[in-house]
Amino acid sequence: MKVYISQPYAFKSDEEIVKVREDIIKQLHAYLKDVEVLDSVIQKEQTFGLKQLSQSILVLSDADAIIFAPGWEKSRGCRIEHTIAEEFHIPIINLQKKD
Questions:
Q1: Spatial distance between the Cα atoms of 88 and 27, rounded to a whole number of angstroms
Q2: Which long-range contacts (CB under 8 A, 24 or more apart) does 54-63 make?
Q3: Domain assignment of residue 47, yes or no
Q4: Angle at 24 between CA 76 and CA 89, to 5 degrees
Q5: By residue range, what is the domain housing residue 47?
Q6: What per-residue string of b and e applies to 57-71 under the rule 16 or more CB within 10 Å gives b?
Q7: I need a surface site. Which of 17, 22, 41, 98 has the fewest CB within 10 A?
Q8: Cβ of 23: how many Cβ atoms within 10 Å?
Q9: Per-residue confidence of the chain (99 residues) as pLDDT tens digits?
Q10: Distance between alpha carbon 68 and the CA centroid of its chain, in Å?
Q11: Structure confidence at residue 11 (pLDDT)
Q12: Which residue stretches of 1-99 are H helix?
């Protein structure tokens, strides 16, 4: 199963982005036996805004499912990706964060 991770980038360091992503990937591997995480991380210095979102949507188009990182509701790009997932019937994986 190919999974796309939607996560906010704004006001986050590259280290924060990678840490959240790694945590989600660990949870996915515990939840799913056969999972391929689609590479959707775009370095901030490469592009931003609409160009970044369009590249992310292109990657999302190959996904079998999508998972959203904490705080996605506050990110315009993540909200757009959520709408796309709903409109195109891409399954949304919900994993509970363990405290």
A1: 25
A2: 56/6, 56/81, 57/81, 57/84, 59/4, 60/4, 60/6, 60/84, 60/85, 60/90, 62/2, 62/4, 62/38, 63/2, 63/3, 63/4, 63/38, 63/90
A3: yes
A4: 55
A5: 2-93
A6: eebbeebebbbbbee
A7: 98
A8: 15
A9: 999 999 998 888 889 989 999 999 999 999 888 999 998 766 555 556 888 889 899 999 999 999 999 999 999 999 999 999 999 999 999 976 654
A10: 5
A11: 84
A12: 14-31, 50-60, 76-87
Q: What is the pLDDT of residue 45?
A: 56
Domain of 66, CATH number, reads 3.40.50.450
Residue 28 belongs to some domain of the structure: yes
Q: Look up the pTM and report it.
A: 0.87
List the beta bridge partners of residue 37. Answer: 3
- The tally of domains found in the chain comes to 1
